[in-house]
Write a structure and sequence with these properties.
five-stranded parallel β-sheet, 920 residues, mainly alpha, plasmid, Rossmann fold, LuxR family transcriptional regulator, 49 helices, Arc Repressor Mutant, subunit A, two-stranded antiparallel sheet
Length: 920
Amino acid sequence: MESVIGTMIGRDSEQEVLSAFVAAPGGRALVLRGDSGVGKSALLGHVSQLAVAERYRVIRAAGVEAESELPFAGLHQFLYPLLSYIDRLDQVHRKVFDVVFGRSEGTPPSVMTLGIAVLDLLSLAASQHPLLLVLDDGQWLDASSTEVIGFVGRRLTGSSVKLVVVLRAGVPSGFDTAALKELAVTTLSEKAAEQMLDLHHPGLADRVRRLVLEEAQGNPLALLELPPYVRDRRTGHAPEEPFGYTGIPLPQRLQQVYGARIKALSDPVRAELLRGALDGVGAGTAAGQARGGRYRMTDTDEATDYGLLVVDPLSGDFVFRHPLVRSSVVQTATPNERRAAHTVLADVHRDNVERRATHLAASAVDPDEAVAAALEAAAESATRRGGAVAAVAWLTRAAELSETHQERSRRLGSAAYVAGHSGRLDQARQLVRAGAGVDTGGSPDSVVASGYVAFFEDGDIRSSQHQVFAAIESLRDRGVGQSNEVLTRLIDLLLAISQYGSDEAWWLRVHELLDSLGDLVPAHSRIYQDAWGDVVLRGAGVNERLERAFADVHSLEPWDVTRLGAAAYHVDALSQYRPHLQRMVDREIETGALADAMTMLHLIMLDQIAVGEWDEAERTGRRCLELTTTHKHALFVHHTHAYLGLLAALRGQVEHARELQATVDTWARPRGIGFLTQITDTIGTTTALAEGDYEAAYLHAIGITPPGTFHPYAHQAPRTLLDLVEAALHTGRTQQAHQHAQAAHHAGLPHISPRLALTTYGALAMTTPDPTQADHYYHQAQTHPHAHHFPYELARIHLAHGIRQRHTHGPKTARPSLTLAAQTFQRLGAATWAERAQAELRVSGLVTRATTQLTELTWQERRIADLAASGLTNKEIGERMHLSPRTVSSHLYRVFPKLGITSRAALRDALGRIRDDQNV
């Protein structure tokens, strides 16, 4: 390599950049991008030698195309030489690496968590000598490793670590969006190409020299390798033009050059090279010491003599001279030779379930149940590590190798199931059709996959319900045995569809069916059954069962975590489990269960709304909307719109909220998706409350559930408890409000979730006529140990309490509660609620900084206020201004807090004060 570097021609500018890169203080990253054979490896060798001269420790790795779908395979290779440092990290970071590298079980970390752990590991390793990490063929690195290395590369500033990544131009890579500084490695200039050719191949005949220069087009590797090939072709009576100008890309022509040398090797040496190539042994200077567990080629001096291998100066191992040598070794081998090599490699990696599966899959020709089972095990391992995409490929291959039609159909069904969860609905559909070709009667596996496709792609509730229901009945009637995976999938799908349907009659049929199955229904599915259906009737005790389920989180598939998270939402325990979702969601979006990642984002957004992180919730919702729209998941698109609409309503963005409400309702109601139409009714209720239009709010609220009861299997019924009560009180329906609060108490809502406890006590306080008893309930609500987890509901209770205190104990007593309410609403961004609280504070005699800003009325608001002050009704005002009475009412409810009043009767005096102030 020294001789090559010493005679590097035409690379002065690149060498200057690399010298400055190594000499610069602190850490940084650089990407070298260029075509095959353009000299990237030589530059990589150059920067490595510069780093060694500066006392850097150089760690090398290379992407392997065969492992591009193995999660974290590249990262393991990169960090293999540093494993000894892991034991010196703190326990948290050690656990991260133990999980990723398979040394222990646990929930795979997020990109950020793992990236931070890698940064700490690198910092520790670089404490004595700086580090240079060099990665060749980065385009073949698996997606999980690419994300982490990209994350690390952007955060090396201030460290003693530098990173160089080499990418092949024209091949898509995760590094394309990593935002790392790039250096383009182009072909040589005409003058430099001539110098290089004359230096390495002096004395060429003019015609051969001209042909080589024309064919090489400045590609350094071609300039080095083509001359002997051209001479051989000429003496062997080749056609007039040695390459025939067939339009074959240059790398393939070079592979022909290497192919001739490979074929000249003895059979044992060629077999040895093939095993190394198929196992991803490195090429050039990037091969190096970080080959963690790769095949070690031996007895290959013959290949070295032919210029196909070199000895890595650091590890002493044989490595391929160039990546094209490696690919040529594979391409020139026969299928039988490749299968034999894979068989040997499967045995070499017998302790690594996923790498062994990769080689077994390639070695088998005929059906082999043992190989198929090994591939299934690898698929399960990959899924738990965020590699659902790889799992689909392994399950599909396992189906091909199955010895019976039943097993083939089952494995294709499993592949379709994982593909559906991975957001690849087209692939799932194809796998379903492939499975149907085996079992034309429609296997339960096919029902699962086709049900997911129809359900998630277009929200097809009705046909999916009946199809899945019938499949479960069929399995039951056939006497299915214990622990049947397909039955569990069918049950969970039926429960998911039923949750979205939110239909009482259908849920009763589902309960009857599942009760008939008895112990065949898994414990997790029973949690979903109770939490997703009617939490008022069946939610007691779910929280404790969730804690037990999440205690063994490392054994859960991504869809298990998602479903348990959805159950946690229904009992208001999401905050406890949100860290699990946040750790998994980025990983699943990249290479895992994409559809589950969409639901994870929904759940994260819901918890952000609940705990008052509304700006973060908006960002999460927008991210989810982009993801669901890109992948054409119509159900999730509208589900996301529903949550964004609810957030807009909470913030008082009434026009935007109503626009989203209409969009979702128009799509969901004809399909019978009650889960979403209930949210649209809640958006209507919340928007009307934000405007102060309590009559409209009441009408929306009773559309969800009548006062005094909680409509069965209407998940928004308990969640809108405060809404119905407040709307009823403000519209003079005191009896209905009190009945609804009492119904919540008698239904045991305080025992189901902390949020329902808070709102139940708040509703009782608002509606109880006895002041002493009301104060007792207000105290119970405001001192509940989890009250601060739900700031929006707590602020509403503070506001109601303050208003009551002003009327019963005087203005001064009310100020603390009103101040807490105003401050919370302002922090949340609930604009109209904040204005209302500020108005109550002014009425209580406390002037705030916001007072002067609230007195500004628009022209239309001022005109409506004047007409209302003159005694006209809303209908009469509407007729004069060509507005609906509802619009007039909405404007007046915005005017009241701006003027610091709470009733229509106070309008005249408030407007008079404004006129007096303007005349001063």
